[in-house]
Amino acid sequence: MADRRPRRNLVSRLKRRRRAGDPMQAYDALPPGLRRWLATACLPWSPASALKIWNKAGGSRDPGAAAARLDAAEQAMLRRDAGIWDLRR
Questions:
Q1: What pLDDT, on the 0 to 100 scale, is given for residue 1?
Q2: Phi-psi category of 58—alpha, beta or left, where left has phi over 0 and alpha has psi -120 to 50?
Q3: 74 closest CA partner among 45, 48, 51
Q4: CB of 59 closer than 8 Å to CB of 33
Q5: Mean pLDDT across the chain, nearest whole number?
Q6: CB neighbours (10 Å) of residue 6?
Q7: Which residue among 6, 59, 62, 63 sits deepest, i.e. has the most Cβ atoms within 10 Å of its Cβ?
Q8: Smallest Cα–Cα separation from 82: which of 12, 3, 34?
């Protein structure tokens, strides 16, 4: 019989990091387009890492391209961590 105990969100191969400072203040300082993207993201992004990708992708000049780059980065992380959440075991 399969194990029916609920799984917790604590099992992941992704790195865990402590953040310095007030995360809400950092979030409030983000550009509006990036805040909209973060509100619909599948993963819990730190404001600093999301802003880094946003700036490298030219978010101030082309918010659509920056959002697409963030989508691609998130999908890559989800693929990398997919083995942990395989519920067919």
A1: 47
A2: left
A3: 45
A4: yes
A5: 82
A6: 5
A7: 59
A8: 12
Blockwise average pLDDT, block size 10, the chain, 89 residues: 56 68 87 95 90 94 95 91 61
Q: What would the pLDDT profile of 11-36 be if each residue is shown by its tens digit?
A: 666 677 676 778 789 899 999 999 99
Cα distances from 15 to residues 18, 37, 52, 68, 77, in angstroms, run 10, 22, 17, 23, 11
Q: What is the pLDDT of residue 5?
A: 56
Among the listed residues 45, 14, 19, 18, the one whose alpha carbon sits nearest the alpha carbon of residue 30: 45
